[in-house]
Amino acid sequence: MVEEGGVLFRQGELSDSIYIVKSGVTKVTRGCGEQDEAVLSFGFAWRIYAFESVAQGRHLYTAVALENTRVCEISYPKLLAAMVDCPELYIKLIEVMAEQVVSDTSLWMSVYRGCVQKKIAAFLLNIARRTAYGGAINLNICLSMPRTDISKYLDVSVESLSRGLSSLSKQGLIEVFNRRVSILNLDKLIAVAEGRKGSAQSPAPADLSSQHQGELFVRP
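The structure assignment produced for this chain is given below.
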């Protein structure tokens, strides 16, 4: 068990293991020289970390628990031996890794090629899918990560993040209470995430400057 705020592994440390998140939420960061750290991703149950670090011999990034998180550390040499004895394990591991790559790539495309609302919608849908089972979508999600981390990941300001959430809420697509977000109109939220024309109407500037923006998050 890694407690909230605890580090699974640090960038630059020697690496000969992979890590599987069994429950909880994590974030991955990487130092940027004199600049602030970059937030690369967020991980949920069954996220696999550090495969890419094994070949380098050192961890390429830092993973931190955002809440109490159960993690399984597996020696890479032992894992290779187990896969030789159990081909089914190899197949399952490849499937999980492939799904992880597809999910990350899809979100990355939305985050780096979209407006603020598209970025937020894609981010919320990713969490909704990653925290559900059997291909379903979790319509009630919890944002365990502070708003500063989300803004770094989405490459938007904290103020733009709050305004974007307020906008989606005013359109009736989501409902936000503290760190909890309920998806009220899944089809329209998907349309926004996919950037379909006319999928979301931008409210007037006065609407974006909601006096209740502070209610969107309680964590600094």
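Interim note for the steering committee: Confidence is low (pLDDT under 50) at residues 201-220. The two ends are 25 Å apart (CA to CA).
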